[in-house]
Give the backbone structure.
Amino acid sequence: MSAGYHFSIKMSMCFSPLASTVSMATRTQQLAQPKANRLRYPDRRSVHWLDKLPPERTGSTTKIELSHLWSDLCRSKKFHTQVTISPIWKVSERALRAVASERLRSLAQPRAPAAGWQPARPLLAPLSRGTQTAVATSRICQLAQPKRRQVLEGSGHKSKPVPVTHLPSKASAHIELLATPKHNHPKFKGERPVCWPVSRAARNYTASQRLLDLSSPKDRKAPFEGYDPYVVSRIARSAGPSPRIQQLCLPLPRKCSSK
């Protein structure tokens, strides 16, 4: 190492305590200065000013200064007028003399429909000659007739079944059986009337004590009403502890001191 380097290290070691002493003195003088009195204005109305009194108000209202953002927002929007271009424009000479390639010609061809595609059927398809000259059979005429509902003469009497119309001779026995409407059950009494007479026994019946007890509402008591916590029941007074309880009542052997 050079001699100049050793000399600089020695000089720095000599002057470092002096520099630290100067800095300490400056810090001590700074801390020794008294703090500024922030309460020298006793009539202060705001905490935002500390060094001077607020300016006095001359007007009756407060003047609001808008920021640049608020000023920009208050301005009306500018509608940009777009120049409409005519749908007809001039075609260049190069475009007029251009020749389409094979690829462009293939793309310009319309797409062919699918293999199984058929055109849409008309809403009203024409009827065939056979459909127009068809004659309905007796069964179709029978099914076309409206159903005949059975009318009940009285609520408490049996309903009178409507006579079945005679089927044509061509109908089989099975079709005749299926076409016959179902009859009501022999014990069917019809709908029960809304008001019916009450029997004499029901009117003269006297309720028993059990029915009276069941019909009376339950007595609701407040929690702990009539409860005495100091009363000991007879069963608790005559009860005896079990061997397990007597064993648990004894102290632990390790805690018992031998005398």
User: Anything to note?
Assistant: The chain has eleven helices and no strands.
